[in-house]
Design brief:
The structure is a single chain. By secondary structure, the protein is an alpha+beta fold. It has a single domain, classed as Nuclear Transport Factor 2, Chain: A (Roll). The chain is about 30% helix and about 50% strand. The protein is built from 3 helices and 7 strands. Strands 1, 2, 3, 4, 5, 6 and 7 form a 7-stranded mixed beta sheet that branches. Strand 4 and strand 5 form a beta hairpin.
Length: about 130
Amino acid sequence: MNEEEEKQKIRDVISGWMAASADGDTERVLSLMAEDVIFLMPGRPAMRREAFAAGSNASKGQVRFEGTPDIQEIHISGNFAFCWTQLSLKIIPLQGGTPMNRAGPILTVFRKGPDGRWLLFRDANMLTPT
């Protein structure tokens, strides 16, 4: 597979993530990340897969996520790739209330598995309120 096809597979992971998040489909989101994934966010300790799943399940039925990713660059080196994305995110309470808007850059590292799928491996999320 050539590099452009591999980059498209990474774009597909990102769009699949956004669609699954909007649908509240935690299991599908989890299928797009490595077992040893780590999320980094300002002012918070590193978050691993189990904490991500718990947080996602706790918010199920409480909020809906609407996000617009603007991929700035993807670079691939062997079985690793990194992607810089500018993300706009709206978190909408389902029981009423004011939506929360967040925006900012995200730096994501993907790792290619033995099955050829790209999985989210590390994610530095620098979204701030807008």
